[in-house]
Design goal:
The chain is an alpha+beta fold. The strands form five sheets. Strands 8, 9, 10, 12 and 14 form a five-stranded antiparallel sheet that branches. The protein has a four-stranded antiparallel sheet with strand order 13-11-15-16, with no helix packed on it. Strands 3-4-5 form a three-stranded antiparallel sheet, with no helix packed on it. A hairpin with a 6-residue loop joins β15 and β16. α2 runs antiparallel to α16, α4 packs antiparallel against α6 and α4 packs across α8.
Length: 472
């Protein structure tokens, strides 16, 4: 008897090696134009933000540029407000306000900033509008890209890129106009006599506008923007997001003549929601971090629902709780106003009010006093001891003013220099102040003294600065 048992199954072939790519190959997205309520609001924000950005550098205020961050003079002009380096506190407050506003808007309605006011979204929308006007609609652009490089294709592509480049350079030029007076920039255009840093920032910002809005587009939102990665921590079940009504739409399917479609949902599987999405996602697969909340899919789906005779809202702005519990409009709004939102709103309002009060009540005068370290102390006529100080008087108002300087803190102390100075609008004066003290007034060492600078036309405009007097 043969003890060897043969395996009746054939030997398995070795598994073939498979290569798995860690990076998704880029697929160009051809965005379909769409109209509707959300598209209208998107263009309202495009026009609004760009009118502000391109228009502010040209506005005049008190014979100067209304908004100017003059780095050379180290002054920030915001209409009637003049800010100095000492006012950097207000920049920190502005950043805090922006952060809390972002938290509030995100907690209420998701990525509203991304979908309507983010520069990446705004400039991409403008570039796509130019592309659509030059090359045609979605199908025309797809056909053009698949075709050979003939004369027509070369002409259209060249025209599009020239317009993109001109717009990008104008954008960079406008940005620099916030830091260099626009009149100086315009005067330098005929001769191209710009400064080195001005040329750099015009080309740098213009180049990035051309690259980000013309080529990278949705890749910035998907891979580069950190907001897309941490937005979920600010969402909760009552946050308004773009949502596909899966219960109403499924099972999806096309409507055909002489075919019973009663078992199908309202979604006709047309793919319009994917075609109009600037990031190329399918919202029917659920909320994804790539979704920027622009609402284009809502407009596209509503148009299709109108054509097939179904009610709008298959894709809509709603919350997870509202979708699951079928809230009506009243119930939806009542869940939006929740403790988290109230807390964010109260904190934001308090910071804004405190900032406005601080700006409204701030004294339009700054004074810095520095003792001359080259001449610490010296004896002058009458045996008095003299210290020399350098005082910087900054008139942060828009009107010329005269100021009186006085000193106190030691018996018999007096000023041996000019006690009256005049400063023009937003002018920074540097004056030398000589202070004398009788030798018997104080013992040897360092002693505190105080300078008072008071405006002649308004006693409330005054500063009280502390420094030291050195008695040898």
């Amino acid at each position: 008897m043969n003890d060897k048992v043969e395996n009746s199954q054939p030997a398995q072939e070795p598994a073939k090696e498979q290569k798995i790519s860690l990076y998704e190959k880029h697929r160009k997205i051809y965005v379909r134009a769409v109209s509707g309520w959300w598209a209208t609001w998107r263009w309202v924000f495009v026009w609004g933000t760009q009118i502000i950005f391109y228009g502010l550098p040209w506005l005049q205020w008190n014979d100067r540029q209304a908004v100017l961050f003059h780095l050379v003079e180290r002054k920030f002009y915001l209409f009637g407000l003049v800010l100095w380096p000492q006012d950097v506190f207000y920049l920190a407050v502005l950043l805090i306000i922006s952060a809390y506003a972002l938290f509030l808007f995100t907690a209420v309605a998701g990525r509203l900033f991304c979908g309507y006011a983010c520069p990446q979204t705004v400039y991409t929308e403008i570039f796509m509008w130019i592309e659509n006007k030059v090359e045609g609609d979605r199908s025309a652009r797809m056909k053009l890209d698949k075709g050979p490089m003939d004369g027509r294709k070369l002409r259209l592509k060249a025209t599009k890129h020239v317009l993109w480049l001109l717009f990008s350079l104008w954008t960079g030029f406008t940005l620099v106009g916030y830091f260099t007076p626009m009149e100086e920039l315009v005067a330098s255009v005929p001769t191209l006599d710009f400064g080195g840093w001005e040329i750099f920032w015009i080309l740098f910002y213009g180049g990035f506008t051309y690259l980000m809005a013309g080529f990278m587009r949705e890749q910035v939102c998907k891979y580069m923007c950190p907001y897309a990665r941490f937005q979920s921590v600010m969402f909760d079940p009552d946050t308004l997001v773009i949502t596909y009504d899966n219960e109403r739409g499924e099972p999806r399917g096309a409507r055909k003549k002489n075919v019973d479609t009663s078992a199908l949902g309202d979604c006709v599987d047309c793919g319009i929601c994917v075609q109009v999405c600037p990031t190329g996602i399918d919202i029917r697969n659920g909320l994804q971090y790539e979704c920027i909340g622009c609402g284009a899919c809502i407009d596209g789906c509503d148009e299709v629902m109108d054509k097939v005779g179904k009610p709008r809202g298959l894709i809509r702005y709603t919350s997870e709780n509202a979708m699951a519990k079928k809230f009506d409009r009243t119930g939806l709004i009542s869940h939006i106003i929740r403790p988290r939102i109230v807390l964010y709103t109260v904190i934001l309002a308090l910071i804004c009010l405190a900032s406005a009060w601080s700006i409204a009540t701030r004294v339009p005068l700054r004074a810095d006093v520095i003792r001359d370290r080259a001449t610490l102390a010296r004896e002058v006529e009458g045996g008095k001891i003299e210290n020399v100080y350098t005082m910087k008087v900054m008139n942060v108002s828009e009107t010329p003013r005269a100021y009186r300087i006085s000193v106190s803190g030691i018996a018999g102390i007096e000023l041996a220099s000019e006690t009256r100075v005049e400063a023009g609008p937003a002018e920074n004066l540097e004056v030398t102040v000589n202070v004398r003290v009788p030798p018997e007034a104080v013992p040897q060492g360092s002693h505190p003294i105080y300078f008072d600078v008071v405006a002649e036309d308004d006693p409330k405009v005054a500063v009280h600065e502390k420094t030291t007097f050195l008695m040898p």
